[in-house]
């Protein structure tokens, strides 16, 4: 297990939890944020969000296609309107291709046809151009028939080197 004492950290968290258990299920700012799972990103902090204000949807690369199910639930059942797509500099998704990761996994399991078949069925979604990936994700959401059109869908890049965000689209 990771070198973290989760129990002690949770005891400290729970001790100062206050009235947070009374927060409503829908986020108060009616906002959904799609961003990367990268451990260097703390979207609540760099966006100035508090507990209960937004849905934070994370996956490798902050890809909209992988977040679609969560966005639909967030909008259709929980009332969010605006969506921020936030990718980031120095992202691992810029460093490999689908074929490279497939080969790595297959080579780690020589002769295992189940692994080979399973990995070949996956799209990992790497991208070679950061700003283009943001634009593509925003366009995907804006053009998807199940994503509500009432709110704003914008795209941003978080700079891990400075902590700043810049709007792309």
The overall strand count is 5
Helical region count? 6
Q: State the end-to-end CA separation.
A: 40 Å
Helix content: 25-40%
Rg for CA atoms:
18 Å
Summarize the structure.
This protein is α/β, with parallel strands linked by helices and 169 residues long.
Q: Overview of this structure, please?
A:
The structure is a single chain. With 169 residues, the chain is of the alpha/beta class. The chain is 37% helix and 17% strand. It has helices at 6-15, 43-47, 64-78, 98-108, 113-120, 130-143, and strands spanning 31-36, 54-59, 82-88, 153-158, 165-167. Strands 2-1-3-4-5 form a five-stranded mixed sheet. A hairpin with a 6-residue loop joins β4 and β5. The longest helix is centred in the middle third of the chain and has 15 residues, at 64-78.
List keywords for this structure.
6 helices, 169 residues, globular, 37% helix, 5 strands, alpha/beta, 5-stranded mixed sheet
Fold blueprint:
Elements: H1 6-15, E1 31-36, H2 43-47, E2 54-59, H3 64-78, E3 82-88, H4 98-108, H5 113-120, H6 130-143, E4 153-158, E5 165-167
Parallel strand pairs: 1-2, 1-3, 3-4
Antiparallel strand pairs: 4-5
């Amino acid at each position: 297990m990771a070198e973290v004492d989760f129990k002690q950290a949770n005891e400290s968290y729970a001790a100062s939890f206050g009235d947070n258990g009374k927060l409503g299920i829908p986020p108060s700012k009616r906002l959904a944020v799609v961003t990367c799972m990268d451990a260097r990103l703390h979207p609540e902090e760099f966006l100035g969000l508090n507990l209960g204000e937004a849905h934070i949807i994370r996956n490798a690369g902050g890809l909209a296609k992988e977040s679609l199910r969560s966005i639909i639930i967030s909008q259709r059942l929980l009332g969010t309107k605006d969506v921020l797509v936030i990718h980031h500099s120095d992202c691992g998704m810029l460093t490999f291709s689908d074929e490279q990761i497939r080969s790595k996994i297959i080579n780690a399991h020589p002769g295992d046809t189940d692994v080979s078949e399973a990995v070949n069925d996956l799209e990992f979604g790497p991208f070679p151009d950061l700003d283009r990936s943001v634009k593509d994700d925003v366009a995907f959401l804006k053009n998807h028939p199940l994503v509500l059109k009432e709110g704003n869908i914008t795209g941003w890049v978080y700079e891990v080197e400075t902590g700043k965000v810049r709007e792309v689209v």
